[in-house]
Amino acid sequence: SAYVFTFGGGVRHEDPRSRDKTIVGGKGANLAEMAGIGLPVPPGFTITTEECIRYLAEGADFSDELRAGVKAALGHIEQAVGKSFGNPADPLLVSVRSGARVSMPGMMDTVLNLGLNDETVEGLAAISGDKRFAWDSYRRFIQMYSDVVLGVDHHLFEDALEIAKEDNGFYADVDMEAEHWQALVGEYKQIVARELDRPFPQDVNEQLWGAIAAVFDSWDSDRAKVYRRLNDISGDWGTAVNVQAMVFGNMGNTSATGVAFTRDPATGERAYYGEWLVNAQGEDVVAGIRTPQYLTKAARERAGAKPLSMEEAMPQAYGELADVFELLEKHYKDMQDIEFTVERSKLFMLQTRSGKRTAKAALRMAVEMVEEGLIDEATAVKRVDPMALDQLLHPTLDPKAPRDVLGKGLPASPGAASGAIVLDADTAERLAGRGEAVILVRVETSPEDIHGMHAAKGILTARGGMTSHAAVVARGMGRPCVSGASQLSIDMGARTLKIGGRSLKEGDVITLDGATGDIMAGLVPTIEPELVGDFGTLMLWADKHRRMKVRTNAETPADCRMARQFGAEGIGLCRTEHMFFDASRISAVRQMILAEDEAGRRAALAKLLPEQRADFKAIFEIMAGLPVTIRLLDPPLHEFLPHTEAEFAELSDAISIGVETLKRRADELHEFNPMLGHRGCRLGITFPEIYEMQARAIFEAACEVAAASGEAVVPEVMIPLVATRRELEILKALVDRTAQAVFAEQGRTLGYMVGTMIELPRAALMAGEIAEVGEFFSFGTNDLTQTTLGLSRDDSAKFLGAYVDQGIFQRDPFVSLDVDGVGQLVRLAAQRGRATREDIKLGICGEHGGDPASIAFCEKTGLDYVSASPFRVPIARLAAAQAAL
Ligand code: PEP
Ligand code: MG
C-alpha cells in the first residue's frame, strides 16, 4: 500500500518509494535493498515517514488505510515465516524499530519480542524446546515495552532483576534459569499494574499499535530534538517504523548477536571490526550490560583478551558474515555498519548502513577505496564531511610529554582533550557555557546526556564498548572519547571518582587520549597536526575539482603562516582594528581617539604609522605575491577606550591629559547602538587622517617588500560598511591620492585595487552604482545578516536556540547563511555589480565563508573566492570542491 511497504520473504516492489530513504527511512531502505540482493533478512514491513508526520499532525490518530495496510503486511510476515501473530501454539514475534532518513543512533525507541503474552510464551517455550529462552524473552519484552511504550521507569525492572539475582545467589544474568525468569515476569507484571493501575496488555494487536505510536511519538522527544538541532536534521522528516519478524540470538550457545563494521571506524584500517555476544539479544551489545567480545581473532589477540572471538567460536557463521561484508561493500561502495544475529547457527542480517567514522578513518577509507578501484576521486572528495576535518586540524597530545596515566579504557573516539571532571550532563553544559573546558565522566552515557556530551571537550565512561552509544555519538560529534574504563568507579553522592587506586573529585583536571584510551591526571601538552598523508592526498583531489579560490581571514603573522600551511591562496580579510588592540600601541590608539582636534590625532597617528607598516610588511612577506585584502579601520571607537579607573589613570599619565577630560571625551563617544553608529567608513569620512595613515602604511610596506623580494605585491584596499556610492568615491580618492604620494616618494609604482565590503542592505541594492567606483566586492555577511534580519550579532545567542528549536530558523543564520533572505541580497548585488563592471572580483569574508552549506551557495552564485578563518581553510577547500562537483 502507499502507507506500508513489505520486504523480505521473496517480495520485491517496483515502486521506487519502497527503497527511498525519505519515504521508508534509512533502515527500511537498506533492509529492502539487502533482501533484494538475496541476503538473509527476516521478513517485515515499513510504515512510511509520511504516516509519522500525518500521525503527529493529526493529534496521534491512525488512519483506516494505515490500519488496513499494517494488517495486510503482517499477513505477509506470517506467511513468509509460517507462524501467526498471537497464535498460542506457534506465535510470530516481531521487533518494532524506528528509522529516520538519516540514522540517529539511540535517539529513538525500539521494542523487541513483541507478541508475547501469558499464552504465547508457553507456545514459544514448546516450539523452541527452550523454556528458559521463552521466559527470558518475555521478561525482556515486558521491561522494554513498559519503558518505551508505557512510560514505566526502567530502573524499577532493573532493581527487581538485581534483587532476584541476589536472592538466588547469582552473579550474572546467565545464571538465571527458566523458573527464575518466570518468577521475575510475575514481578514485572505486578510493577506495571502497580505503576499504571492496569495490567500489562495481553492483546498482541494492542501491543503492536502501542509500539508504533511510541516510535512515532519518539520523533518529537526532547532528546531527538536536541540531536536534530546538533546535526541539522529537519523536524519535518519524521521517522519510519520497521516491523520485522524476530530472530533470536538468545536461543542458547549456538546463537549470538553482534554489531560490525566492514572497516575500522576509528582508524579506517581495512579490517573487519566488531563486537558480539553469545546467547544474547542486540540490546545487550550496545547497552553495555555485558562486555562484548571481539569479532576477529586478530583483534582479540591484539587486545590480549581471553574470551574467544566469533571467528574462533563460530567459524562457519563468521565465514558467512565475512562474505556478506564483502558483498555489502561492493554493493554500497562504502564502509558498512551492520547488525546481525545468529539463531541456532543460522546468520541473519538485521541492518546495514553507511557507518559513522572519525575524520581520520573517513580520509583513509576514501583514499584507500580509490586505490582499490572501488570509487573514483570525485566520489572520494564527496565522501568526506568537510566539518569533520576540524577534528584532524587540531592538536594531538605531544608523544614526548610526560603522562601521569591513571588508567585505560577503550579508544572510542580519537583526539586529545583536557578539562575539569564533570559528572553530569547539565553541569557540563552550564560550565561549558561559561567557557570552561570540561570532561564529562559517566558510568555510561544515555541519549539524555547528549547536550552534555556536546558541551564537553571529551567523554569518559566506565562501561560500554566501542559501539556503545557514547562511542558512536562521540565519534559523530568529533569529541574524543574513552569508553569502558572498567577500573573507573564513580560516587555520585560524594561527586568523586576512583581510578587506578587514585581518588579525584569533580573539578579536577584530567586529559583523555581518545586514540589510545589513556586517562591521565592534569593537563598534557599538545603538538600541531600533520597535514600530509591521506589528508594531503584528498586535499589535492579536492583542489583539482574546485573552481572558487579559498582565502583566509587573518592579521597576525602566526595566523597567516598557519593559513598558508592549510592551503590559503591569499588573505580575504585583514581586520586592521585587531592590530590596534596590541598592548604596545593601545595608548597611542587611545590618544588618537581622545584627541580634541586633527593636529592631536595626527600626532598620535604618526606613532602608529611605523607599527602598521611593520604589520603589513610581515603579511606581504608571508603571503609572497598572493592577493592580500586589507580592510581599513572598522569598529566603534569606544571599543578602544579605557574602562577601569586604573586604566584611565595610566592613560592620563601616558598622554598627559587629565583623567576628568579623558572621561568627558569617553562619555561624548558613548553610543546607544554602536553597531549602527560611528564605525566603518563613517570613521574614514569624519577622520580621514586615520584612513590616510593606514593607506600610507599599506603602500609603503608594499613598496618595501616589492623592492626587497622582487615579487609582485598587489594590495587590495577594502572600505567597510559602505552604504552609498559617494562614501566610496570620497574614500577611494583618498586612497588613490595617498598611493600616488607614496609612489612618488619611493620612486616606484605598483598595482593595487580599491574595493568595498557589501554588508548593508542598501549597498547590496545599490551595487550597480557602487561598482562604478569599487573594483571588488567582498560580502561581509556577518553585518549583512545582522542588518537584514535586524538581529544583533552580539545579543542574539540568548534566544536563537529557541528559534531553531521551534523551526523558525533551520540553523543559526550567523553560522549558516540565510540563503532565502540574505542570500537574495548577495545574489542581487553580484548581478548588479557584474552588470556595471563585468570583471568585478567577488568574494565573501563573513564567517559563512567557512561554512559548507554557505560555500555551496557561493559556488552557485558564482563568487570568485571564499575567505575563512585559518582552521576553516581546509574545510572550505573541500566544501568548495564538493559544491563544484
Ligand atoms: C562582516 O561583517 O561579515 C565582516 C566580515 O566584518 P566584521 O565581522 O569584521 O564586521
Ligand atoms: Mg562587518
UniProtKB/TrEMBL annotation:
Q: Which UniProt keywords apply?
A: ATP-binding, Kinase, Magnesium, Metal-binding, Nucleotide-binding, Pyruvate, Transferase
EC number(s) on record?
Answer: 2.7.9.1
Names of the cofactor(s): Mg(2+)
Instruction: Tell me the active site.
Output: 469 (tele-phosphohistidine intermediate), 845 (proton donor)
> Where is Mg(2+) bound in this sequence?
759, 783
What does it catalyze? pyruvate + phosphate + ATP = phosphoenolpyruvate + AMP + diphosphate + H(+)
Which Gene3D superfamilies does this chain map to? 1.20.80.30, ATP-grasp fold, A domain, ATP-grasp fold, B domain, Phosphoenolpyruvate-binding domains, Phosphohistidine domain, Pyruvate Phosphate Dikinase, domain 2
Domain spans labelled PEP-utilising enzyme mobile: 436-517
PROSITE patterns named among the record's database cross-references: PEP_ENZYMES_2, PEP_ENZYMES_PHOS_SITE
Q: Name one GO molecular function term.
A: ATP binding
Q: What class of enzyme is it?
A: transferase
> Domain Pyruvate phosphate dikinase AMP/ATP-binding, which positions?
23-59, 62-303, 319-371
- Domain PEP-utilising enzyme C-terminal: start-end pairs: 532-883
Q: Which InterPro entries match?
A: ATP_grasp_subdomain_1 (IPR013815), PEP-util_enz_mobile_dom (IPR008279), PEP_util_AS (IPR018274), PEP_util_C (IPR000121), PEP_util_CS (IPR023151), Phosphohistidine_dom_sf (IPR036637), PPDK_AMP/ATP-bd (IPR002192), Pyruvate_phosphate_dikinase (IPR010121)
Q: Which Pfam families match?
A: PEP-utilizers, PEP-utilizers_C, PPDK_N
**Where substrate is bound, by residue?**
575, 631, 759, 780-783
* Residues annotated as transmembrane: none
| Similarity-based family | Belongs to the PEP-utilizing enzyme family.
Name the job this protein performs: Catalyzes the reversible phosphorylation of pyruvate and phosphate.
What PANTHER family does its record include? PHOSPHOENOLPYRUVATE DIKINASE-RELATED, PYRUVATE, PHOSPHATE DIKINASE 1, CHLOROPLASTIC
UniProt-recorded name of the protein: Pyruvate, phosphate dikinase
Protein species of origin: Novosphingobium flavum
